[in-house]
Specification:
Elements: E1 2-6, H1 11-22, E2 26-31, E3 45-49, E4 65-68, H2 75-80, H3 82-102, E5 107-111, H4 136-149, E6 156-162, E7 164-166, H5 177-188, E8 190-194, E9 199-204, H6 205-217, E10 224-228, E11 231-234, H7 235-245, E12 249-253, H8 267-271, H9 280-292, H10 304-310
Parallel strand pairs: 1-2, 1-4, 2-3, 4-5, 5-6, 6-10, 7-9, 8-12
Antiparallel strand pairs: 9-11
Helix pairs in contact: 1-6, 3-4, 5-7, 5-9, 7-9
The structure holds nicotinamide-adenine-dinucleotide.
Amino acid sequence: MNILITGGCGYTGTILTQELIDLGHNVVVVDTQWFGNFLKKNKKLKIIKADIRDYKKIPLKNIDTIVHLANIANDPGVELNQKLSWEVNVLATNKLIEKAIENNVKHFIFASSGSVYGIKKEREVTEELSLLPISTYNKTKMIAERLIKSYENQIRFHCIRPATVCGFSPRMRLDVSVNMFVYQALSKGEITVFGGNQIRPNIHIKDLTNIYKYFIENPDLPIGFYNAGFENLKIIDIAKKVKQFIPTKIKIKKNNNDPRSYRQSSKKLLSIGFKNNYCVEDAILEIKEKFESKKLKASDKHYTVKWMKKIGL
Ligand SMILES: NC(=O)c1ccc[n+]([C@@H]2O[C@H](COP(=O)([O-])OP(=O)(O)OC[C@H]3O[C@@H](n4cnc5c(N)ncnc54)[C@H](O)[C@@H]3O)[C@@H](O)[C@H]2O)c1
């Protein structure tokens, strides 16, 4: 298959691109490379260093499937530059799907976010519940989803709503909870937890890339929205899991300005035959191993908003 991945040099994209090449697919990556490029050269891979807002640079001829990951990818990043975020996360997404249809691309997969639901009192957050996004980041995701759905008669689409992702990637993110706690424990011997009782869903990066592959290989699965998170954990319990493997203190701070607490249910994804294989413990152990073997070194690049400020975004 010919697959185009926007954001293919990112945390998720780097793993997904490599796995698709290993499966024998031809992959085109379009990425600004704001956080670098860790993809290995391969004759099945074409990398285009470009901004998706410059849609003329996106080659869509003969592409079967688009996996659209390129976004300003967290709350503080979006707050830092809201104009850029609306342009990339919403306007460029709309243009991309229009151009995909014009070029006869058959399938569009979008990385939305489990945070589109906002705060929910229901114990199980399923796809049937209403979306009440809180942050601007969450709002850009909801609006992008609605734009994509408006083309449902012209292209098959699957919007994946990932929980917070954990695990190692050559383009590493240390601003996501599990990864951040592991790194704090390893580098400082102390984890700082804000609040702690809020429950959040988690997903291992390899389960997430397996989900994208599952939809790529099965484009006829029912179109629509799919939650993707398998472990609903209290933040304090994530810190305690880290402590099981890495000696560390846990410092609890009372002021918690992020009130979201919810259990994401991925029953719908499981009902279409997807099986998850990894857990938070796997992520903890693999990050520990990379740190100890000096393959994971401190860098501001691992913190999205810190790095965006540094490169003038
Ligand atoms: N990591 C998570 O916990 C998580 C959870 C839910 C949803 N998501 C979503 O998954 C997707 C991938 O996230 P990630 O964690 O890999 O983030 P990431 O920041 O590592 O990757 C995003 C990539 O997109 C590129 N990019 C950004 N804007 C671009 C533009 N205008 N043109 C071209 N390239 C651009 C960046 O250079 C980067 O390589 C994002 O849409 C994110 O919102 C991530």
